[in-house]
Amino acid sequence: MEERIIGTVIGVTVAIVGSAIIFIGANKWFDQAGKNWKWFGAVTGGVIGGVVTTILLGNRVIAWKTSSAADATDLTWLLVPLYVVLAGLVGFLLNGTDDRTRRMLIGGVGGLVVAGSYGAFVTSEAFLAPSTLDVIIWPIIGAVVFAGIKRARNSGITTSDLLPPAVTGAGLGWLVGSWGLGTIGSGTRLEAGLGFALAGLALGLRFGLTPNLDKNQRDRLQNRSRAVIFLGPALLFIVMTLIVPTIGTFLLSFQDARGEKFIGGENYGNIFTNPQIFNIDNIGGIFTSRLTIFGVLAFVLGWFVARRKGREVGAPYDWTGGSITPIAIGATAIAFGIFTTLRGTFWNNVWWVAAVTSIATSLGLAVAVLSDRSKGERVAKSLIFMPMAISFIGAGIIWRFMYLARPPSVPQTGVINTVWVALGEATATRNGLFWAMIVVLGTIIGFALFVSLRARADDEPGAMWMSGMVAALFALLVVGMFTGVGGGSLNEAGDFVAEPYFFLETRPWNNFWLMVVLIWIQTGFAMVVLSAAIKGVPTELIEASKVDGATESETFWRVIIPQVSSTIGVVTTTLIVLVMKVFDIPKVMTAGQFETNVLANEMFQQAFTNFNRGLGAAVAMVLFFLVLPVMIINIRRDAEAA
Amino acid sequence: MLKHTRLVALLTALMLVLAACSGDSGTTETTAAGDDTTTTEAMTEETDAPTETTEAMADDTDLSGTSVNVFGPESAAEGEAIQAALDPFAAETGIDITYVGAGDFSDQINIQIDGGNPPDIAIFPQPGKVADFARTGDILPLPDDVNANVTANWPEAWTSFGNVDGVQVAIPTKTDLKSLVWYSPSRFAEAGYDIPETYDDFLALVDTMIADGRTPLCVGIESGPATGWPFTDWVEDLTLRQATPEFYDQWVAHEVPFNNETTTSIFGQIADLWNTPGAVFAAGGSIASTFFGDNGTPLVDGQCEMHRQASFFAAFLPEGTTLGPEGEINAFYFPSNSADSKPVLGAGTLATAFRDAPEVWAVMDYLGSAEYANARIAAQGGGFLSAVGGQDLGLYSPFEAGLVEILSSASVVRFDASDLMPAAVGSGSFWTAATDLVTGSLTPQEATDFVEESWPTS
User: Fold this and answer.
1) Is the predicted ipTM greater than 0.95, yes or no?
2) Do the Cβ atoms of B284 and A591 come within 8 Å?
3) Could you tell me what percentage of chain B is helix, strand and coil, using 3-state DSSP and rounding each to the nearest 5?
4) Which residues in chain A are closer than 8 Å to B227, comparing Cβ atoms?
5) Full-model pTM
6) Is the pLDDT score of A486 beyond 90?
7) Which residues contact B47 (CB under 8 A, 6 or more apart)?
8) Is the domain defined by B51-176+347-402 classed in CATH 3.30.365.10?
9) Looking at domain B180-342+422-454, what is its CATH homologous superfamily?
10) Hey, where are the domains in chain B?
């Protein structure tokens, strides 16, 4: 254990010190471009030589031993410094002259000799046997393609301008033809040496062909390099931790369970043909669903109101509370009607996104508006914000206790079912509790009505509506208590039998009960952000609208909402991304059983429980593609704002 | 100009890649060097004492200063008992043995092996997984001396679960007896009920109890992420009783389709039994939401008369419940079709090694020994059973000694099928099918069809 810790510490230290040296070194290197052009050439040459040699060493293509005997001295470590010096020398000489012929000579011969000398160190495993045809055809193809690209991109250039890209192309073509397509491991040292030498020749010629940069260009090179030096490490980090794994997952999603062989799009096919994930068999049910019918009615009503009021104010449609509220409720009802018929993990996820995002945002907005500048604002907002401090796992466990249902013959211990069954018993038996509740509820209704009327008189529509709704809600409950509400009924013998509601087992609504948990958490977030935005609406605007005779409601819909619409957009997109990845809550509360699975949990189960890595990766990619458009919108908005 | 900038960018990127790589290889080399030393040591030691048994090796060779980590599914009290049972051996040999238990072992071990850092020893509750990882070469076969001890100590019925393609790769460390029905002897005597001898007697007894106004069964299948598993135990026990052990093996290996007539019929029988009005304490659709461990209290309180559950259920009875024929709660063998055949459904844990080193094999050998069983019985004080030969039966309570007797004498022992099937079925669709059947959203035929469709093709 200690050894490993020390090893790790050494490794980390080496990496940090190494990075620092490279960072400082890179700065110094490009300092030379402006100050000392020759030395810039030397360092650039040295870096190219060092990098190429290190790569070759890393792949065990070259080695340096004094003899083939087992006890021979290993001089391999000398190779990197050797080639740094050699290539550095070529670079130094190359930048030391402005004469085109001499530059070509230095570059070409230097490249040929330095690269060719790799042949002396090539290990027998890396001997090369290229085919003659390949090494002739590929450089030609490379030269033509590169010159062609140059030609196509820049119009009106001379033939001599096409030479540098042609040489680059020929060099790359040579590499493809010799090292890329040749047989490595057979053949001779000479052929391997030639494989290096001609590539080196092309590289050297390429540098030799272009003239030295003038003073202005050198300074610009030095300045521009700074951006790369500073951004490089961060970009590299993102590439290694984000881009590479994404590509890896993408490739894995086309592979089999163990990630060993490619099976094409089978995993994706499996996702969308699996009735557990993607099931649209009952889609016809939406036409008979009471929810959809109600939704359509509400929608039509909203539309009608919008048209009617629109005429009054002289616009085609009027989008205020009177029309938007029924339309929003109708749309939600239609959506829920559809989601209860579309079953499977995929649709569960879509349902989550639609329900949590819309409900949490609307509730957050409602609380932010209604509490704005009222007396209990701080307390109310603190209380609603508090669930944000609870982790998803913790919230899941809390709500499991809220939803807990026990066998009917024992007392209920889950919070909601305790109340529900007690309510059922009270209404079924009309016991003392029943009359006590009627009295209490009556008092609450009376008080709420009183507050509502007072608020109306004081012109505080927020408080008026809130307490009005509370009164209506409790009035409904009183009606329900007389007509029968709650979990339980009397059996034939006249005994009360409890009927707890199985929140987590009754499908498809168990999905919604899980969503409630996330809504409970995220409403606070939406509220805080929107409340800040509302407070940021200039008071002059609000006062001006009041002076113009707008009611509170009109001010809200026509002044405040347009002002905070971009914030609503931010809240919505943030929530969509967050909800899309929801994992902890279903994992803790149902583990995806009872048709409540979501994509993130499906991915985890496939990849880590079932060990089907290909399918797990495919689910991850589906999730990724679903989130992608939202991310693009977010980024675009950021770019616009900047 | 642009071109030069690009070149610069490329070179800088290359340099940074190199920097990252060299940093990495520095670490790797250091660790690799450490590993090399260990391997060399291991090799020397093995050549030093090639003919001696591991136990002798443990005594002779100095293993002090070495360390072995053990990873298993048992945590909390059971995990502490394992560590307590390992400590004496650690003190004796000087090996630093650490046990780590995790509730989500099954997921974690996949990730650890996949990530290339498996524990030295993993204790699997699923022989199916042992076979998977043995075939990929991650789990090492037992050396001859360790194997010889295991074969000598354990009944063949139990070692066979750790035998993959003829090679012994795992050592049984714990054995659970699943074919048990818990009941209250005093209430049975009072009502004049007899212990059922056959499954038909059992069903008749259920009917009698209903007629007497009692609730015969406690059933609850809620178990967090594993909700549904108690149902699978019922299916397995009935399969062993209504079909042959050979059929059971074929069913597990998917040589017969999952949705065969027998299995579908058994699904139906269980659903019918549980849905019989008055038969189950958790009525009104609450079976799927009743935690399996919550069946202990009603059983003791007389709210139900019988509960079919494995031997570890003792741990879920209210504290202070006395066990045995004279105690508050006793258990009888879940009856078979005839009184003569007594197939046993078992479960348990299997120890496997991932690192080839003398100290690892020494610990492995100890885990399969009677000494380990004795130490663990003493440390755990109930809820642990072992079928290992040579253990001190006196350490068990008389009740548990009776269970051990059933375990070690059974001729037909079969491991819990859901632990043998591929994870996609055994810890996935089989459970889901169970909950969907119990909550009434699938018919028995639909449920078995669903499991059949989910069986991995490769």
Assistant:
1) no
2) no
3) 55, 15, 30
4) 590-591, 593
5) 0.76
6) no
7) none
8) no
9) Periplasmic binding protein-like II (3.40.190.10)
10) 51-176+347-402, 180-342+422-454
